[in-house]
Every structure is written in C-alpha cells, then in structure tokens.
Amino acid sequence: MPWNSEHTNWFFKIETNLKSKDGKEVCLLEYNYDLNDKTVLSKWAKHFRNHYCFDSEIDFLRNGTGLSRKDFLVQLKFPTEARGFGSGIRSGDFSEILVADYLEYILGYWVPRTRYGNKTIRDESTKGTDLIGFKLYDENKTTKDVLKMFEVKAQYSGNKAKPRLQDAIDDSIKDDLRKAESLNAIKQRLFDKGKTEEALKVARFQNQVDMPYTSEFGVAALYSNDIYDEDVIINCDTSAHPYNSALFLIVIKGDDMMKLVHKLFEIAADES
Length: 272
Prior knowledge:
Helices cover 38% and strands 16% of the residues. The chain has one domain. Strands 1-2-6-5-4-3 form a 6-stranded mixed beta sheet, sandwiched between helices. The chain has 9 helices and 6 strands. The protein is an alpha/beta fold. The longest helix is centred in the middle third of the chain and has 21 residues, at 86-106. The model has no long low-confidence stretch (mean pLDDT 92). β5, α8 and β6 form a beta-alpha-beta unit.
C-alpha cells in the first residue's frame, strides 16, 4: 500500500488555554518538519502522490500523452506552482491531506482518500465537505459508530493573519446539509476503484435513522509561524454553529509552510 504515517511524528501538541470568544477550547499543534530527513520525506511524498494518482495506475494514465511519469504529474495532475490559483490550491490540498493524516493516524478515524484523483481542473478545489472520517466499531452497526465532518482553511503567506478558523467554522455550518452528497461521492469513488468493501462501510452512514451513529464536526486552521496571530484565534466565535457542542477546533502552525508544500510536490514528482 502507498500510505505512510511517519510524517505525523512531527506533530507536537502545545499545552495552552487557548479558547474561542465563546469559550470553546482550541487544540494547538506545532508541525516541526525536517527537510533534512530524506527517508521520511520520500515516504511522505509517495503517500502524498498517491492521493492524486495511484502508482499502480500512472503508467496506464500517461499512456498516449508522450509524457514521463514526472511530467504527467506536473503537467496534468498536480496543481501548478505559480500560475493563477495553483499555489493556493496546492496549499489547500496539502492542508486537507495533513489534517486527514492527523485525523486518521493520531485520532484513530478511517479517512477515505478519494478527493483529489478525479479532479477535472487541477487548479480548482474539490467541492463538498473537506474531510470525512469514520469510526466503525463492529459488524452489528451499533450506535457507537462515529462520523466526523471537517473543514480546513490555511494561510501560509501575507503580512497579517486572516480569520481562517472563523472561515472554517462558518463553512462547517453547511456540512450537515452537504453530508448526503459527500458520502455518496466517497462511496461512488471507492466503488469505481473496485474497493467494494470500503464502499459498503460508507453505506453504513447514509441512513442515520435506520442505522444510528454519532455525528461530530471539526474545523482546522493552518498558518506559517511568521503570520500566526493568537488574537485572531481567540476572536473566533462558534455560537452560531448548530452543532456547537460536537465541534472540535484545531490550529496547526509551522515554519515556512509553503516551502514545505512546494518541496513535497517536487519530491513526489521526482520520485514517481
């Protein structure tokens, strides 16, 4: 399998009393990556690349294009580095994948990886809920099952921090309405990939009346350290969220995050 979790060892939780304006606790994490650790970066790049195109499929998909594996990824699959909205899409995709890895490998949810491989336009973000994670407890479809919908926002450049956590909170308000479409999209993509067993796991969550489970919500904001501003975080407000009591807030910050984003795309292409 292409998936790898060693890069999640670079997460460090910062003990803090950080709270939103309405008293909601905020989990603060530092992401202390190491660009000199070639082994971890290589494994991570493979993990990252396979979100866009499985290594087992790349030769078939590039057939007829006249492109090498690297050029196929750079010219047709990966968001562009500098053109138009490409850089912003790169940072958004990276941030969603990083939070998905935290959700799966640190918090113990199953997060299907279906969001990026079927993009029609590579410099656009995929519509729908950013992330959905699942906890399935047994074959009897017990009410212990959990579905967690996550919205992710990032800012890695600029002179002043924007209210990205508030933006994620506001987007999360719509997630319950988008749930049915998002679940159907995940299930269909898994089925199209021949992953019928995983598609059936998603089906367990498509009718909450007949198969009860717990719904949870999460929001994440990611910043580079040079623009991170605690005042922007503590001024966010979750009181308008209809599922406020089931809302998890997380902030991830690290040094020069956009440098890491571009480096990861570079390694993913070079080692394809």
